[in-house]
Write a structure and sequence with these properties.
The structure is a homodimer of 368-residue chains. Chain A has 368 residues and is of the alpha/beta class. Chain A has helices spanning 16-23, 27-35, 42-55, 62-69, 83-88, 90-105, 124-128, 144-152, 177-191, 214-218, 223-238, 256-266, 281-293, 311-315, 327-342, and strands at 74-79, 109-114, 116-117, 120-121, 134-137, 156-159, 171-175, 196-200, 210-211, 248-250, 275-278, 303-305, 322-324, 351-353, 356-358. Helices cover 42% and strands 15% of the residues of chain A. Strand 2 (109-114) of chain A pairs antiparallel with strand 2 (109-114) of chain B, so a sheet runs across the interface.
Chain lengths: 368, 368
DNA sequence: TTGTACGCGTTATCAT
DNA sequence: ATGATAACGCGTACAA
């Protein structure tokens, strides 16, 4: 007669009611023992806790408590893409860091909600999320996920891509994408560059890798991408360079490999660009890599600016000239705004965080 | 008589029962409309959905559904420290990426649970997490959070620091820390280094920055730290170097700044070490920085090895020699193991992932 | 200080 | 194909 190794271990979990029965007290008393210790004699509380320990009762069930209280005790963060992509994106990770700080401050959990599962956008995840509110990050305008969030009728904060349509009841946080982008491009033209290539994010939810003509450019569905592109445009046109002459390469993913692909194509154009503007640092890193592989020195033969100023930008080789934005602050602000809404406050007016150009060593005057 | 701007917007959310009443059917039918469309006439389903739309009902409430079904629909990831630190740790982020992939595969949400709130460890977060199971990452042995997890009687997977005590019922995933560390140190001694300094993580939950003597070293509470230290030790002793002569600096945080502090102290020792072994890449990056500030070239004057092989290691300057482990794979494995447990499977035997030394340019033979 | 009673919003079962 | 009913585990007035 062997001993069951799982003996007692996965025994059905005890409930509050059972603890009450064990002690010979009412369920209300047990509940109070956990939630309002002051409503109890020290003595009964002792007894309750002791019985709980004996029965292996770990306290009120979070789900039941959530139902009863009408609060889930967590905030949801909705990312436009698969969760695994989010973690691969340094800017997103920094943003999450900020949101998590706000969640911690408020004693709330942080539920990550994929905006897309195995490639397909699926509102189901939004519907199934046990949360008290949403922080919505980087959604394409008109994305159906936003509709799903709105339908939940929960407080929500839209970050970086606040489609105007549904925003009446949602708080909004963004950064000065256009100003930052303009500063980046002006820096380049100011140095004397006239042949510039743009390394862009995906322009629409169904990304296509490759050079993007005016038609494609007109489709930009991501607000901050559109604003950055406009910033670049206004800067080059301000210096008398025709926007039509500026090649824009659309990267289907935001990773260094794609940035490298973009650079290879753009640098194959004759006459070769003397500078590249990347819409993110991730893409810029790849572009630097590709340039180096092609035997081009940065910034000697080619200048490169990024966007985001992720920590690695300062440590890359060469250190990257880029547009700084405070991702952690952005997340913290979004999180706090949501927490405030949870507390019953009305949505505030949209917040816009500043950006600023950080000049490092990846840009210089063109040769000759 | 002004118009309330929030008119109708935050109107109490409709419930399933109300939808049923509106349509004139039973709640069961509405439930079926959402959960088993095949149990319904096309016609009634239409009616139900239409009424839902009219009333602004977004589908079954996740909390109530969770209570009724006995499943929360999410898995919890417990990190030893504050969440905001987790996001600042590239290895942890990679790990989360893997876990999130497993969660996505299973259609589960991912709830991040802080192991520590505002500096204090607080089991409350564990108790309050509405999840079906936990992935526990990098806990110190004997940490009370593990007890809290065990008390919840939910399936759990312990990663990297599986205290043997509570592990009977928990799955376990780790990597070959000792072997990896040994390889790193052997590489250095093999190159001819005899004066080596160690840049270590915190040794115990209450970290102390500074040189750690044998007493302090004996307190190591983190399993993988202990194993790595043992690996280093066995390698240097294998080459006839007394472990007592090897200075160990304990960094209170795992970030480059602390690595730099460590390096400054270790390199101030006379005779100066010719090589530094860092227990993480993050610390190694800081050490490189500090060495450079002190006018030491890497690897000319000083060799440095890291541990983890985070992506930046390949891009740092110089590219870092380090011990590779597959963090994403580790997270994916842990996540899948948990999902399997959720499906009723018994815990498997502990899994150990391989590590391997990746030699890049931060190490060379000592001068002279 | 403690107990009673009800409801939170849903789903599973069993009937019809 | 649809409905009635009983849980799920807990929190909170309110009464005692």
């Amino acid at each position: 007669m062997g001993v069951n190794p799982a003996e007692g271990v996965r025994r059905r979990r005890a409930t509050l009611k059972e603890v009450a029965a064990e002690v010979g007290v009412s369920p209300a008393t047990v509940s109070n023992a956990y939630n309002r210790p002051d409503q109890l004699s020290e003595e009964s509380r002792e007894k309750v806790m002791e019985a709980a320990r004996r029965l292996g009762y770990a306290g009120p069930d979070p789900t039941a408590r959530g139902l009863r209280r009408g609060r889930a005790g967590a905030i949801g963060v909705l990312y436009a893409d698969r969760l695994s992509y989010a973690f691969a994106d340094p800017a997103a990770v920094l943003f999450f860091e900020g949101v998590s700080r706000a969640a911690e401050e408020a004693g709330l959990g942080l539920l990550l909600v994929p905006g897309s599962i195995s490639g397909r956008h699926d509102p189901e995840a939004v519907r199934a999320a046990a949360v008290d509110g949403f922080v919505v990050y980087c959604m394409a305008e008109g994305d159906q996920m936003i509709g799903a969030v709105r339908d939940r009728r929960l407080p929500a904060v839209l970050v970086d891509d606040p489609p105007e349509v549904f925003a009446e009841d949602m708080s909004r946080v963004g950064v000065d994408d256009e100003g930052g982008a303009r500063a980046a491009a002006e820096h380049l033209v100011g140095l004397g560059h006239r042949r510039i290539g743009i390394v862009s994010y995906e322009l629409a939810p169904q990304p296509v890798g490759g050079l993007a003509g005016p038609d494609r450019q007109a489709e930009v569905a991501f607000r901050s991408t559109r604003l950055r592109l406009e910033g670049y445009r206004s800067a080059v046109e301000g210096m008398g360079v025709a926007w039509e002459s500026v090649p824009v390469y659309e990267c289907p993913e935001n990773d260094p490999e794609e940035g490298a692909n973009a650079a290879r194509v753009l640098l194959g154009i004759d006459p070769r660009p003397t500078a590249l503007v990347a819409i993110s640092d991730q893409l810029a890193f790849g572009a630097i890599e590709a340039a180096r592989e092609m035997g081009l020195s940065v910034p000697g033969d080619l200048s490169i600016v990024g966007f985001d100023d992720v920590p690695e930008a300062a440590r890359s080789n060469p250190p990257l000239t880029t547009v700084h934005q405070d991702h952690v602050e952005k997340g913290l602000l979004a999180g706090r705004l949501l927490v405030a809404r949870l507390g019953g406050e009305e949505p505030e007016t949209p917040k816009m965080l500043r950006t600023r150009l950080v000049v490092r060593d990846s840009t210089a005057a063109p040769r000759g």
